Amino acid sequence: MRVRPGAGRDRVGGRYDGPHGPALVIAVGAPAVDGKATEAVRRALAAALGVRPAAVTLKIGATSRDKVFAVAGDVAGDVAGRLAELRDGSP
Fold first, then answer.
1. N or C: which end of the chain has fewer CB within 10 A?
2. What is the distance between the terminal CA atoms of the chain, rounded to a whole angstrom?
3. 48-76 b/e (C-beta count within 10 Å ≥ 16 → b)
4. Structural domains for the chain
């Protein structure tokens, strides 16, 4: 994920072509202070994927704009498809 903190509104969707390949863009209104943006991203990602926020955990990137999250449960196929739609801008 590529995080854009301090955005005017929360938005999940779009593609960022970073050094590690394509990533989903998540913009949140929360500032990048004391983990507020990371928590807002976790909740926005959970809502976009249709899972409980508790099912989404940060794995890498606590202080970086580039983050890796894990989604718990038996949702791999659903999540992969939904992430592709969000990243590529499909409805």
1. C
2. 19
3. bbebeeebbebeebeeeeebebebeeeee
4. 2-88 (3.30.1200.10)
Answer whether 27's CB lies under 8 Å from 15's CB: no
- pLDDT tens, position by position, 41-61: 999 999 988 889 999 999 999
Task: Note whether 53 and 42 are within 8 A (CB).
Answer: yes
Beta bridge mates, 26: 3, 12
13 contacts 86 by C-beta, under 8 angstroms: yes
What confidence category does residue 32 fall into, taking pLDDT thresholds of 50, 70 and 90? very high
